[in-house]
Amino acid sequence: MTDNSDLITSISFVEKHNKILIEALREFDAATWARQSYCPGWTASHVISHMTLGARFYAHTIEHGRAGELSIPFGAKDVPEFRSIRMTMMDELIALSGGERVDRFEAAANDLQDTFATIKPEDLNKPAFHPRGPTPVKYFPGQRFYELILHEWDIRNEPDASLIPVGLDHGLDILKERLPFFYGQSPDPDLEGIYVIETTDPAHAWTVEIKDKKATYVSEAASSPDVRLAAGASDMIRLTSGRADIEAKRASGEFKVTGNETMAEVFIKILFNPF
After folding, report:
1. Could you tell me if 182 and 211 lie in one domain?
2. Cα 66 to the chain's mean position, in Å?
3. Looking at the DSSP assignment, which residues form a beta bridge with residue 229?
4. pLDDT, tens digit, 9 for 90 and up, residues 74-123
5. How many angstroms separate the Cα of 130 from the Cα of each of 70, 121, 134, 139?
């Protein structure tokens, strides 16, 4: 799915959301920084420190991926050490003053934008390091945009609030790509079928076909799927990232699941998870 135009769109929305978030962060006082976020055990300070290191990580992995190298960031020799070093660096950022923490986030975000600008069409499918496994360079700008809209929501920690609408339409385009990609990392060997996903505000509808442990995106919505899942766009993105209560949304009618219930449960268990 991802081509150069999608890449440009993602990079543009990343820049817009960086500005939105930085402007908001500049107004934070000590109490706001210390406020619990939606992420268990994390304050706003934790979330922004995590995002700062995420930007540094992405800049490194893209630069090396473009050069044909699966290089682990922060000088780590393996994924456990990468995670350990990252936690130590996160603690260092959390210990800073609020203003210094925003400065570090802004610098890392700007550096990542510069790195995004170096990506060429021939780089899109080159594998780059990610703890989940080698990931094509083309996915990182969209992933960064996704993280920005979700972590901004995490910091607000208002479970009934919607995501910021800026770029939400593009967020759905990224979701269409994410679902097959992440299904491929944790497939169910026995699951096969046709799934239609529908959203409102904005309206989108598409098909995910699962066969032979592989999920495939189809731009048109199948007329007679095995399972149909429907929700508002903001809710669908939050549901598929573990940021909304599935049963509560179903009970309220905000998340509708029709068709084969067993198949739906397996699909949801694999793909509707925090990240």
Report:
1. yes
2. 21
3. 197, 257
4. 999 999 999 999 999 999 999 999 999 999 999 999 999 999 999 999 99
5. 9, 20, 6, 11
Structural domain range at position 242: 169-271
Output the six-digit token pair for 57. 């990580």
Residues 91 and 32 placed together within one structural domain of the fold: yes
- For residue 164, being part of any structural domain is answered with no
Say if residues 59 and 110 touch (Cβ distance below 8 Å): no
- Three-class SS state of 207: strand
**Together in a domain, 19 and 130:** yes
Rounded distance, CA 6 to CA 141, Å?
9
DSSP 209-262: EEETTEEEEESSPPSS-SEEEEEEHHHHHHHTTT-S-HHHHHHHTSEEEEE-HH
Asked whether residue 265 carries a pLDDT value surpassing 90, the answer given is: yes
How far apart CA 268 and CA 266 sit, in angstroms, is 5
Length in residues, the chain: 275
Separation between Cα atoms, residue 28 and residue 101, nearest integer Å: 11
